[in-house]
Design a protein that fits this description.
heterotrimer; A mainly alpha (274); B alpha+beta (362); C mainly alpha (287); A: mainly alpha; MetI-like fold; 13 helices; B: 6-stranded mixed β-sheet; 4-stranded antiparallel β-sheet; 18 strands; elongated
Chain lengths: 274, 362, 287
């Protein structure tokens, strides 16, 4: 599409956008970088490599990774079921997928904690039958992150599956492929970029998630303490340097993830020929 | 309103879309801007409309410099390629839009607007659709509504971007004639863009042939067809056989009737209907064979193969009226003799893009 | 003679069909897995909020809600949404207009920048404002000298909410307006419409559903944001607690009914959002 030179409103629109972005985003974000520059490299390393902080990064990344993987698996099944089959209440279940987007994270947090605590509805069941305790353990973090991740996976895979050209399946079938071969050689490779994007989105969100996790996590240092919580703790202890150093590290990781996700989405668009 | 373009240039990045275009369009003409895709014809139309600004040059409307005048104040009617009908408005509201957005002081009242809109819808024979929405109309109907909408503001110039491009072949034929008749009725200066030479020949009173941002030729359809200024125009308008003096057998060409003595050109362009074909008896020694023929309606197209050129066969296309073809009793495999009645000579300075050189009977 | 090719063709169709359709056991198995998952992870939590909120009866629920702290939290939540949503809506329209209707340097960078808050942890979104306006922050001493409170006060909550919610409207509008193209707008201009006439009569009617959709999501997040707001609020009861913070405070005080009463309001907000969202998707013809 060529640009139009006669459209009115370029200067006010761009001007407003830039001023607003600067005030709300750029200046606050650059403060973080500016503040971290006041730390020396040695100070920064000393803060970041502290045992408790390293442990919290391990907890955050580990649980986000596991949660994103589990959510990708079930998300793919849910997307498949919603697109390929018809059953009663389908529209309702489809709409419900967005609940984790719409439900405030604090609400999700206390609800999940209530369900999975040792005397909760599911918590008791799991503890009595399998001896597994979910809440106040790292497993609780994973459960909360799965809840948060599900819509990311479903909503990236679903449209690709919907637009999927079924004549490719017919072509494969006409050449004698079995259902399993069609899925593994035709459908899955076409879904894979979207699935990976969903996974990356889930992972990025999971690493930074706060509200839905802190109620169910138990927040035990070295065991079930996530990075965002540690930042809050540092702030509450007026340890600005610590908070800044950890926050900057998280921010850099987020940017890297954003870059990866953008590249993935570009790949998805190229694959689906849009 | 007359239109004068002086030295119009326009670049998109490193790409030169228009290169010093000079053009005069007198009042009341029906002009086609004709050229292959990417030749700059739509950009030129948008510059005349004021939808685009030229990098250099002037646009004079009725003799006044209007280069920097806003599209809103130029008094043009623009019909977009995909019509750009307002999808959330009825046909009536679409046509009335230009009247309703006038400043309060010059805005007619609703009853005047209603009369005018219905008159315009009657003009395009679609008043019965006035309460429909654009997505309930066929392509041809949308096209006519878009035209009615552009006419509502009583433009001095009507500009149409590929007006028939998105229509079915049969609708296209019908609308072409309709546009020509409508122009005769309204007599407003009209410019349309097309890549279809047949369409330009059929509709326009003047044709401007554009290629790579430059005007190749301007003239009436007859001038353009009968006196092409250069080999590009000759090949773009109608069908042409191209003979190269250096590559092809000049002795054979001479025997076929081409006069070689008083020409300074090196390529000869020969229209298929300027080639006469006669059947020879089976034993005659002729390098030319009728390999295939197609029935095009009133004429028959003959595919001839000439074995005589440097050992490689060259295909020559000829056309003759179908009655004559029946009388001649030609059939596939016949040896024939060929007579060239008329040729245009050109000096090919630089070769054209392959699609221009090979667009023969696609 | 004729029967043989027919037999072959029917055999071939059934083979092809089985390769194109999942077997029933798989189909129902997958539906069962998907629905159990949805039930456990989505239906159950939603049901529990409502159950817990009313577990001690309607009266207890009502009492929990009509506590002054809760009422103040509701008021603050509404105020925050009332300020942030309109600001972000105007921003979204301006940004989408600039990005989809014009070419300029740094456009793709700007587009990426708009997505940024989605990939930043909500806690960090709060921290940056503390670093800017907090006591030890860049403007900290200046602000305290002039007796202006931003952190641990309402302005901080609004700023943090602005940050986390500003992409929503722009993100809905940009792809739609890109796809729409600008022919209709050019047509309006060529017919003599002014810039505002074009915007209100042509652009706005075409984007209104997507705009509402963006506003809806923006509002849901503005009312429900927890992490960013939690960092800047200071949790002062009756003053700087939004509804999600009130949920946390009550829950940590073992006031389960109170926590779930506040939570149930937010859950109803989520349900209303989902219903409206589904309606808007249907209106827009998405999915």
């Amino acid at each position: 599409m060529s640009q139009s030179q006669i459209m009115p409103g370029f200067k006010p629109a761009l001007g407003y956008t830039l001023v607003y972005l600067s005030l709300v985003v750029l200046i606050p974000l650059s403060t973080l970088i500016f503040k971290s520059l006041q730390l020396s490299w040695e100070d920064y390393l000393a803060i970041i490599t502290h045992k408790r902080i390293v442990a919290s990064f391990q907890v955050s990344f580990g649980s986000a990774l596991v949660a994103a993987a589990v959510a990708s698996f079930f998300g793919l099944i849910i997307a498949w079921v919603l697109v390929r089959y018809t059953f009663a209440g389908q529209k309702f279940f489809d709409a419900l997928i967005d609940l984790p987007f719409a439900l405030p994270t604090a609400v999700a947090g206390i609800v999940l904690a209530t369900i999975f605590q040792p005397n909760g509805f599911l918590g008791k069941l799991l503890l009595d039958t399998f001896g597994i305790q979910v809440a106040f353990k790292p497993l609780g973090i994973v459960v909360a992150l799965i809840f948060i991740s599900i819509p990311f996976v479903v909503r990236t895979v679903q449209p690709v599956l919907q637009e999927f050209d079924t004549s490719m399946e017919e072509a494969a079938a006409s050449m004698g492929a079995s259902r399993l071969q069609i899925f593994s050689k035709i459908i899955f490779p076409n879904l894979f970029p979207a699935l990976l994007t969903g996974f990356a989105l889930s992972f990025a969100r999971g690493v930074g998630e706060y509200g839905s996790v802190i109620f169910i996590a138990g927040n035990l240092p070295y065991v079930s303490e996530i990075v965002p919580l540690l930042i809050v703790t540092k702030l509450e202890q007026y340890d600005m340097e610590g908070a800044t150093a950890i926050a900057l590290t998280m921010l850099v990781i987020s940017f890297a993830l954003l870059l990866v996700i953008n590249l993935l989405q570009h790949w998805v668009r190229k694959r689906s020929g849009q | 309103m007359s239109i004068v373009l002086e030295n119009i240039s326009k670049n998109f990045g490193a790409f030169s879309a228009l290169d010093r275009i000079n053009l005069e369009i007198p009042e009341g003409e029906l002009v086609a801007l004709l050229g292959p895709s990417g030749c700059g014809k739509t950009t030129l139309l948008r510059i005349i409309a004021g939808l685009e600004r030229p990098d250099a040059g002037k646009v004079l409307l009725s003799g006044e410099d209007k280069t920097d005048l806003d599209v809103r104040k130029r008094g043009i009617g623009f019909v977009f390629q995909h019509y750009a009908l307002f999808r959330h408005m009825t046909v009536f509201d679409n046509v009335a839009f230009g009247l309703r957005v006038k400043p309060k002081s010059s805005r007619p009242n609703e009853s005047v607007i209603a009369d005018k809109v219905h008159a315009l819808l009657n003009l395009v024979h679609l008043d019965w659709l006035h309460d429909r929405f654009p997505d309930q109309l066929s392509g041809g109907q949308r096209q006519r509504i878009a035209l009615a909408r552009a006419l509502a503001v009583e433009p001095n110039v009507l500009l149409l971007d590929e007006p028939f491009g998105a229509l079915d072949a049969s609708v296209r034929k019908e609308l072409r004639l309709w546009l020509r008749h409508l122009h005769n009725e309204l007599n407003v200066t009209t410019i349309f863009v097309t890549h279809d030479q047949e369409e330009a020949m059929e509709v326009a009173s003047q044709i401007v042939v554009l290629n790579r941002g430059k005007i190749e030729q301007k003239g009436s359809p007859t001038q353009i067809y009968d006196e092409p200024k250069n080999d590009f125009v000759s090949q773009f308008i109608g069908h042409t056989n191209v003979f190269h003096l250096e590559q092809d057998d000049s002795a054979w060409l001479k025997n076929s009737g081409i006069v070689l003595d008083d020409t300074d050109g090196i390529t000869a362009h020969v229209r298929p209907h300027h080639i006469g074909v006669e059947k020879l008896d089976g034993n005659a020694a002729s390098p030319i064979t009728l390999t295939d023929w197609q029935h095009l309606g009133a004429t028959i197209r003959l595919e001839l193969s000439n074995e005589g050129f440097n050992g490689t066969a060259k295909v020559i296309y000829a056309e003759m009226p179908s009655d004559q073809f029946k009388q001649s009793r030609l059939k596939r495999g016949d040896k024939v003799s060929v007579f060239i009645r008329q040729a245009h000579w050109f000096n090919l300075e630089k070769p054209h893009a392959p699609e221009a050189a090979t667009n023969f009977y696609l | 003679m004729i029967a043989i090719p027919q037999e072959i063709s029917t055999a071939k169709t059934s083979v092809t069909a089985s390769a194109l359709r999942d077997p029933d056991w798989l189909k129902y198995g997958l539906i069962a897995v998907a629905l159990s998952f949805i039930f456990l992870f989505l239906c159950l939590p939603l049901g529990l909020v409502i159950f817990q909120a009313f577990s001690k009866g309607l009266v207890a629920f009502w009492e929990a809600l009509s506590q002054p702290d809760t009422l103040a939290a509701i008021k603050l939540t509404l105020l925050t949404a009332l300020i942030t949503v309109p600001l972000n809506t105007v921003f979204g329209i301006a940004a989408a207009w600039a990005i989809t209707r014009f070419e300029f340097k740094g456009k793709s960078f700007l587009t990426t920048l708009i997505d940024l808050p989605f990939s930043v942890s909500p806690v960090i979104s709060g921290v940056i404002f503390v670093l800017l306006f907090g006591l030890q922050g860049v403007f900290g001493s200046w602000l305290s000298g002039h007796d202006i409170k931003i952190i641990f006060a309402v302005p901080g909550i609004i700023l943090a909410t602005l940050f986390v919610t500003f992409p929503f409207v722009a993100r809905q509008l940009i792809p739609l307006m890109q796809e729409m193209g600008h022919e209709e707008e050019e047509a309006a201009l060529s017919l003599g419409a002014s810039g505002w006439q074009m915007f209100f009569q042509i652009t706005l009617p075409n984007i209104k559903w997507a705009l509402l959709y963006g506003v809806l999501l923006c509002n849901a997040r503005a009312m429900g944001e927890f992490g960013a707001v939690s960092v800047v609020s200071g949790h002062i009861r009756g003053l700087t607690n939004t509804l999600p913070l009130q949920v946390e405070v009550s829950y940590n005080d073992y006031d389960v009914v109170g926590a779930f009463a506040s939570a149930s309001i937010l859950a109803s907000l989520a349900i209303v959002t989902l219903v409206l969202k589904t309606l808007l998707e249907w209106k827009q013809g998405i999915r």
